[in-house]
Amino acid sequence: MDFGLIVDLETTGLDPLNDKIVEIGIVEFGVEGDEPPRVTRCYGALDDPGVEISPEVQRITGLEPRILAGQRIDWEAVRGFFAKASIAIAHNADFDRRFLERSGRLDGLQVHWGCSMRHIDWRKHNFNTLSLNYLAADHGFVNPFAHRAVFDCATTFRLVAPYLPELIARSYEREYLVKATHSPFESKELLKQRGYRWDPEERCWMRIVPESALTEERRFLQADIYKGTARHQELELTSV
Predict the structure, then answer these.
(1) DSSP assignment, residue 59?
(2) DSSP result, 73-113
(3) What is the pTM of this model?
């Protein structure tokens, strides 16, 4: 049996340089032959960040200081999950991957990442939103506790299970980091809707695009963002 992971983090903010992980959720699943994937193990834990948590994060997650006080993630257990898995999947995997890489907790492990937001062509399947909870609702079920890590993992697993072959295949496709450098301020909502995220280090919007979609992405940037000659940057990624 081959094993994969669904991973989700809750953090004190969006910047992996300065913010901290406060919760991790992992759903391990196994795949054998042509059988549907099935959950084999779960893990969830909180972690006291030792810093003040903004009211906004408390409101979104429900994680108040009194709940986090003294809590610790068992990172050896987490490493055990990742060491066993052939793929780690997250919804908007760039976010979770960057925090885990910055933390150094997975140093020495070769982790292959898949993204349930970009490695499934949701528009091809007639779904126009990339939001996890809206996609779940469009598939006929509800995430009962959004922005709590294990529940987000369970929701992601249920969502991607029928699309897992597509997700895995696309996760191995050559990809490019597209940076919408010097994009007009008023274009930020269009970029966000397209799946771009703001990078505080680079100070620009960026997203990862598969090679098969690169021509269309160039057209979008030229026509809808720059209104003329595209001024974006493309960087081929050596690993996913």
Answers:
(1) H
(2) --HHHHHHHHHH-SEEEETTHHHHHHHHHHHTTTTT----E
(3) 0.82
**Rounded Cα distance, 36 and 154, in Å:** 15
The average confidence (pLDDT) of the chain is 94
Predicted confidence (pLDDT) at residue 240 exceeds the cutoff of 80: no
Q: What is the pLDDT of residues 145-176, one digit of tens each?
A: 999 999 999 999 999 999 999 999 999 999 99
- How many Å apart are CA 213 and CA 43, to the nearest integer? 35
Q: Residue 117 carries which side chain, given as an amino acid letter?
A: M
Closest CA to 201 of 17, 47, 43: 17
**DSSP secondary structure string for all residues of 146-200:** TT-HHHHHHHHHHHHGGGHHHHHHHHTS-EEEEEETT--GGGHHHHHHHT-EEET
- Amino acid of residue 42: C
Measured between alpha carbons, how far is 22 from 51 in angstroms, rounded to an integer? 10
Instruction: Name which of 107, 85, 99 is nearest 26 in CA terms.
Output: 85
Distance between the two ends of the chain, CA-based, in angstroms?
Answer: 23
Q: Tokens 């992992």 sit at which residue?
A: 26
Strand, helix or coil at 217? helix
Residue 5, both tokens: 């992971």
Query: Which residue reads 């913010």 in tokens?
Result: 19
Gyration radius (Cα) of the chain, Å:
18
